[in-house]
Specification:
The complex is a heterodimer of chains A (167) and B (309). With 167 residues, chain A is an all-alpha fold. Chain A is 58% helix and 0% strand. In chain B, helix 4 packs across helix 6, helix 5 crosses helix 6 and helix 7 packs parallel to helix 10. Chain B is globular. With 309 residues, chain B is α/β, with parallel strands linked by helices. The C terminus of chain B is likely disordered. Chain B folds into two domains: 120 residues, Glutathione S-transferase Yfyf (Class Pi), Chain A, domain 2; 159 residues, Rossmann fold (3-Layer(aba) Sandwich). Classes of the chains: A mainly alpha (167), B alpha/beta (309). Chains A and B meet through helix 3, helix 5, helix 6, helix 7 and helix 8 of A and helix 1, helix 2, helix 3, helix 4 and helix 6 of B. The structure holds iron/sulfur cluster (2 copies). One iron/sulfur cluster binds next to helix 2 and helix 4 of chain A.
């Protein structure tokens, strides 16, 4: 499947639908899915079936439960990469600002530091005690620019707007 | 061989003792590590799910930085490896995608050209140095029965990454055997540890980890050996959460491979590495494996390590 970088929604949905077409509902993906094993409300096979049947992406929120372990793709006898299809679905819902808060937090940290974590005081001290070199300075402005031109900042703004809307 | 070293956020900011073990071991095999201003790889699940375009462009930027220095990238984290290797695959197999991403990179004056390779330390040690080369440099054998977990993002997608067999990985096992350890097979060996959704759904995420520990504990290992910092934190700190949530009593020491390699090579400074561990009995497990004090590790199985009570 093509990476989700085109703007046309219809084109993307048809991409997803096409990618899911070979599926014959054997269920091997669900049987191999570690998340389905402990949380049967998340069934990757049914997520695919919905798209094939209706041609539309129902945003339920559960697609975010995928741990992206890639086992479904590994085992599918038809070569369907469910995890990639789920990424496409999540991208579509993120575009509308529907994202789990933990992911928004992560994106915010990346936006301002260029990384997903920063060394705590303790780690900085430990690094020095262990004789580790200073970490090369990350240019956060460069990352900000990339987030801006690839639409991530817009997505974050849309998330905040959606947050503020009366329920 | 000189590489652009990509320690990744997790090792650099949270597990400096793992970075230390890598920096102790690599020069011994003439693996040079050059530090470059890399950003987050970025993280393969959350960032890619949020915006695949952003994810791809950030990864392309990191690879471009290494290209500017004529270096290949050496990763030490399965997640960094997956992101950079998958991004590279997408950029190298679609001219459209590459052009699209390069238009974004032009804004920061960079360009992805596809010159740099992306490898993980497991590949360099197993495929280039080789198990024989590893064994020759060890001063002592580590008498331990271990379970290995290579990590989802080193194994899959197999057709692209081609690091090891995704359904029957053997390289990390060969590497631990080179240090004198026994690698024990176990149920759900290639199963995920649940780390990918720790922030999204904590309950589900730790239930997945519980399943993983159930499989490992059945064979009563002395320790688990991983080659990824996320798997490391998931197993080491995560087992306490699993114990609290599900009433289990796991106490399984967890090691990142190069820590044990440094110990087996008898390199200076390994005490300071092991003291960073949080599972009680970790240092004792290593001491026993070296034949110092306590009962030998190969004695009664299940007297320590993972055991469900
Ligand atoms: S394993 Fe493949 S063919 Fe079988 S149900 Fe899942 S996606 Fe469909
Ligand atoms: S990638 Fe997601 S859907 Fe596929 S098996 Fe793993 S957790 Fe399940």
């Amino acid at each position: 499947m093509r990476p989700v970088i085109w703007d046309d929604d219809e084109e993307r949905v048809s991409d997803v639908r096409q990618a899911a077409q070979p599926c014959f509902q054997c269920g091997v993906c669900a049987a191999s899915c570690p998340v389905f094993r402990v949380a049967p409300e998340f069934n990757p096979r049914i997520a695919v079936d919905e798209i094939v049947q209706t041609g539309t992406v129902a945003v339920t929120g559960r697609e975010w439960y995928c741990a992206y372990c890639l086992m479904c793709e590994q085992r599918c006898p038809m070569g369907v990469a469910l995890c990639e299809i789920l990424v496409a679905i999540k991208n579509l819902s993120a575009r509308d600002g529907k994202v789990p808060p933990s992911i928004v937090e992560m994106m915010d940290v990346i936006r301002f530091t260029g990384k997903v974590s920063h060394p705590s005081k303790g780690t900085t001290r430990r690094r020095r005690e262990l004789g580790l070199p200073e970490l090369p300075e990350v240019d956060a402005a460069e990352v900000q620019k990339l987030l801006e031109v690839t639409g991530a900042i817009d997505r974050l703004t849309r998330y905040r707007e959606a947050e503020c809307e009366p329920q | 061989m000189k590489y652009a070293f990509f320690p990744g956020c997790t090792i650099a900011d949270r597990l400096p003792f793992i970075e230390k073990s890598i920096r102790l071991v690599c020069p011994e095999y003439d693996i040079g590590l050059v530090g470059l201003p890399f950003t987050c790889c970025p993280e393969p699940n959350s960032v890619q799910s949020f915006s695949q375009y952003t994810w791809l462009t950030m990864a392309a930027r990191n690879i471009a930085v290494a290209e500017e220095h004529d270096l290949d990238i050496l990763t030490a984290c399965a997640g960094c490896f997956e992101s950079l290797a998958m991004a590279k695959h997408m950029l190298d197999t679609s001219a459209d995608t590459r052009a699209h991403v390069n238009r974004a990179l032009a804004n920061i004056g960079r360009e992805y050209t596809g010159q740099a390779r992306v490898v993980h330390l497991l590949q360099v040690l197993h495929d280039d140095v080789g198990c024989k080369g590893i064994e020759e440099r060890t001063l002592r054998q580590l008498r331990m029965r271990v379970v290995t977990h290579s990590g989802c993002h080193l194994l899959r997608p197999e057709r692209v990454l081609q690091v090891d067999l995704a359904e029957a990985p053997a390289k990390l096992d060969a590497l631990v055997r080179a240090l004198g350890m026994e690698s024990v097979d176990y149920m759900d060996k290639t199963m995920c540890c649940g780390a990918g959704i720790r922030g999204v759904n904590r309950d589900i995420s730790f239930a997945v980890l519980r399943e993983k520990f159930a499989g490992m504990s059945m064979v009563h290992p002395d320790a688990a050996v991983v080659f990824c910092p996320t798997c490391f934190i998931s197993f080491e700190a995560g087992q306490r959460v699993v114990n609290r949530m599900f009433g289990t009593e796991y106490r399984l020491p967890v090691f990142y491979y190069t820590e044990l390699l440094a110990v087996a090579m008898g390199l200076e400074g390994t005490e300071s590495i092991l003291s960073g561990h949080r599972v009680q009995g970790t240092e004792e497990t290593v001491a026993r494996a070296m034949g110092h004090g306590g009962t030998p590790a190969q004695a009664p199985m299940g007297t320590h390590g993972a055991r469900e009570v």
